[in-house]
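Hi support team,

I submitted a single chain yesterday and got back a structure, but I'm not sure I'm reading the token output correctly. Could someone confirm the output below corresponds to the sequence I sent? I've pasted both exactly as they appear in my results page.

Thanks,
R.
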Amino acid sequence: MRRVLVCDDDISISEVVAIVLTDSKLGEVYTLPDCDNIIEQIDTIKPSVIFMDDKIPTDGGVKATRLIKNHPEHKNIPVIYFTANNDIHILAEKAGANYTLAKPFNISQLEDVVQQAFRGFQDPETV
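Hi R., thanks for writing in. Yes, this is the structure output for that exact sequence:
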């Protein structure tokens, strides 16, 4: 089963993402309201795709994404950077994220970016 990890301190956004992806049968969804111990969380959840908010506590999305992308076991997990910030593409590039999703987004945009990310996922156990 594909797993999606949503890192966003706005519970309502995490819930919307979870509902849409679950209803669309695009994966099992896990949510985190912060990025504390992000590597340990990923070790436990084993996501195929990660949504990363920019302004997430404690260190923010750029730092958390860099930790993921610099980790030898997790660097191939696609990260979708999502924020309402107008500089989303600059922030995503700075972080090393693979995809972006600007807030607010519609359901088809959400589903499309997740499907793209799943296609880009290379499970280290099967590579």
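A quick pointer for reading it: The first helix runs from residue 11 to 23. Let us know if anything else looks off.

Best,
Support desk
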